[in-house]
Amino acid sequence: MRYQISGKQIDIGAALQTHVETELGTTLGKYAGRPTDAMVVFSKSGHEYVCEAVVHLSTGLTAQAKGSATEIYAAFDSATEKMDKQLRRYKRRLKDHHKERAQPVETLGAASYILAPREEEDDLPEGEIDPMIIAEMETPIPSLSVGEAVMQMELAHAPLLVFRNEGHSGINVVYRRDDGNIGWIDPRNTSS
């Protein structure tokens, strides 16, 4: 497994790197099977250290967790504990997902943009907006079942997930509703 351990404006010593590799490896070994790479970023927010960990699994799924504490090791332990809880919750589904798939999840590349509103709105007609593109990137769209998409969205703590439905190859969206339930948008299943 590849580890990328870094700090935002703080130095990360060799002892902390070794601790991260050992503890994260142990946690992932219990549940995930074959993780491919892990990215751990430490930063300081006020008087607390913040640890953000993102792990890519061989099945194509991604798990992430964030922890904070007054000590840097405690921040990492908090993030690891949260990831452990997530993976434990999905252990059976992750193992079943791995058995069903001989190959990692296929992804389709899609353009992704970050838009910012223009500050001079006086030149625009009433009610129109003219956003400015401030970043362009490619975003992978995984090919998943609806259940796998919901699991991926929850593992990544994302508010929504765009995916290609394995059942019919159409683009679908799952999202967390305000009432706590999960919504699913499938444009193919509309009656017109």
UniProtKB/TrEMBL annotation:
<comment type="subunit">
    <text>Associates exclusively with 100S ribosomes, which are dimers of 70S ribosomes.</text>
</comment>
<dbReference type="GO" id="GO:0022627">
    <property type="term" value="C:cytosolic small ribosomal subunit"/>
</dbReference>
<keyword id="KW-0810">Translation regulation</keyword>
<feature type="domain" description="Sigma 54 modulation/S30EA ribosomal protein C-terminal">
    <location>
        <begin position="130"/>
        <end position="183"/>
    </location>
</feature>
<keyword id="KW-0963">Cytoplasm</keyword>
<comment type="subunit">
    <text>Interacts with 100S ribosomes.</text>
</comment>
<dbReference type="InterPro" id="IPR050574">
    <property type="entry name" value="HPF/YfiA_ribosome-assoc"/>
</dbReference>
<comment type="function">
    <text>Required for dimerization of active 70S ribosomes into 100S ribosomes in stationary phase; 100S ribosomes are translationally inactive and sometimes present during exponential growth.</text>
</comment>
<dbReference type="GO" id="GO:0045900">
    <property type="term" value="P:negative regulation of translational elongation"/>
</dbReference>
<dbReference type="InterPro" id="IPR034694">
    <property type="entry name" value="HPF_long/plastid"/>
</dbReference>
<protein>
    <recommendedName>
        <fullName>Ribosome hibernation promoting factor</fullName>
    </recommendedName>
</protein>
<dbReference type="Pfam" id="PF16321">
    <property type="entry name" value="Ribosom_S30AE_C"/>
</dbReference>
<dbReference type="InterPro" id="IPR036567">
    <property type="entry name" value="RHF-like"/>
</dbReference>
<comment type="similarity">
    <text>Belongs to the HPF/YfiA ribosome-associated protein family. Long HPF subfamily.</text>
</comment>
<dbReference type="Pfam" id="PF02482">
    <property type="entry name" value="Ribosomal_S30AE"/>
</dbReference>
<dbReference type="InterPro" id="IPR003489">
    <property type="entry name" value="RHF/RaiA"/>
</dbReference>
<dbReference type="InterPro" id="IPR038416">
    <property type="entry name" value="Ribosom_S30AE_C_sf"/>
</dbReference>
<dbReference type="GO" id="GO:0043024">
    <property type="term" value="F:ribosomal small subunit binding"/>
</dbReference>
<dbReference type="InterPro" id="IPR032528">
    <property type="entry name" value="Ribosom_S30AE_C"/>
</dbReference>
